[in-house]
Amino acid sequence: MKHVITFLTTILFLYASSLSAQSDGLAKQNVPYYGQSQDAYTNQQCLLDVYIPEGKSDFATIVWFHGGGLTGGQKEIPDYLKGKGMAVVGVGYRFSPQVQVETIIQDAAQSVKWVFEEIEKLGGSKDKIVLSGHSAGGYLAMMITLNKSYLQHHAINVDDLLGVVPFSCQAITHFTARQEQGIEINQPTIDKHAPLFWVRNDVPPVTLITGDRDLEMVGRYEENAYLARMLKIVGNENIKLLELDGYDHGMVYPALPILVKQVNEWLKKS
């Protein structure tokens, strides 16, 4: 009898968990955005989760890249973004040193390709896709936005994005890419793995958010300020730079409400 009760309790727990996931809007989990014909490490890492807002259609989608220095972390859907009338896609990707930074950027582009191809099947609009993420995630969002070739490879015009909102992204060459070249972490460089290298006109709207310049990771505010300035100099008008006074590099929560507000503002103008 004890085993029967335990079994029934387990079934009820799983059923309740299933209902909770459904009511929470989690439509898909651990989706392999490369398909299943890849190597074991790719199949393990290159997965995404999809949160869909209930009772909505033609909704906007935030593609969220997690942080972790391109060497760690895990895919996530920030709780604050749930229930805001938008879909959220939490993307996982491969890490250094198992792969090069170039490959990680390609993973980010492949995940965005999946969103463009699949989001309308789930009720969303491919004309309302926003890229975002924290730290290394923000870096990935900016790299595939400014270097158009990553999404052009998938026949996607990156300028069709509704906008991009990176949190405390690296604007010079990412320190993990510098490490691959034997460059010390505090030696700044700008090469093909720097968003600043790809400054161009006619980018989609960009809102850069950082923590307090005196509390952030060394130079992170200044990197973003330089990127914002250069994007404006070449003729982009929809560029913002926001500094969150009193917050250090872990400024994700105070930035999330700003992300939601910014997406809603872009939707009103679209």
From TrEMBL:
Which positions carry the signal peptide feature in this UniProt record?
Answer: 1-23
InterPro entries tied to this protein: AB_hydrolase_fold, BD-FAE-like_dom, GDXG_lipolytic_enzyme
High-level lineage: Bacteria, Pseudomonadati, Bacteroidota, Sphingobacteriia, Sphingobacteriales
Q: Which Gene3D superfamilies match?
A: alpha/beta hydrolase
**Which protein is depicted?**
Lipase
Q: What keywords does the record list, in alphabetical order?
A: Hydrolase, Signal
Q: Which GO terms describe its molecular function?
A: hydrolase activity
**Domain BD-FAE-like stretches:** 48-214
